[in-house]
Specification:
It is a single chain. By secondary structure, the chain is of the alpha+beta class. It has a single domain, classed as Nucleoside Triphosphate Pyrophosphohydrolase (Alpha-Beta Complex). The chain is built from 2 helices and 9 strands. The strands form 2 sheets. Strands 1, 2, 3, 4, 6, 7 and 9 form a 7-stranded mixed β-sheet that branches. A two-stranded antiparallel ribbon has the order 5-8. The longest helix has 13 residues. The chain is globular. The chain starts with a strand and ends with a helix. About 25% of the residues are buried.
Length: about 130
């Protein structure tokens, strides 16, 4: 089983998403930020490391929203356990440092017609409509 950590980054009623590059299996889709949990890391530690690598920020107090499971698109498929965290506070300026052709802030209402990774979209719809 693989384990990943993903961030739902919110500020002033908007969510930050990144459009994936061609080399990625989610090419062209808007996705949340994060990555794989490495040996010896907790999901929260992995999230903090990944957001520093991808966006140049230092996350403060990420809040665990949910844990979900899906299958990888690799052959053979493998179970992927994803920890989704809500991120509202960080230090530093957000910069697109890797893995995304662009990053952009979206109002939550704009997500329904957006081409997104389905797991992230499902989690956003379920947990952010309550807030």
């Amino acid at each position: 089983m693989k384990i990943g950590a993903r961030a739902i980054i919110l500020r002033e009623g908007k969510i930050l998403l990144g459009k994936r590059l061609k080399k990625d299996s989610f090419y062209g889709l808007w996705c949340t930020f994060g990555g794989s949990v490495e040996l010896g890391e907790t999901p929260a530690q992995a999230l903090i490391r990944e957001l520093n690598e991808e966006l140049g920020i230092k996350v403060v107090n990420p809040e665990l929203l949910t844990v979900t499971e899906t299958m990888t698109e690799e052959q053979p498929p493998e179970i992927l356990q994803l920890y989704f965290f809500l991120v509202k506070d960080w230090k530093g300026e957000i910069v697109n440092k890797s893995k995304h052709s662009e990053i952009r802030w979206f109002y939550l209402n704009d997500l329904k017609d957006l081409s997104m990774g389905w797991v992230g979209k499902k989690v956003i719809e379920k947990y952010l409509t309550k807030r």
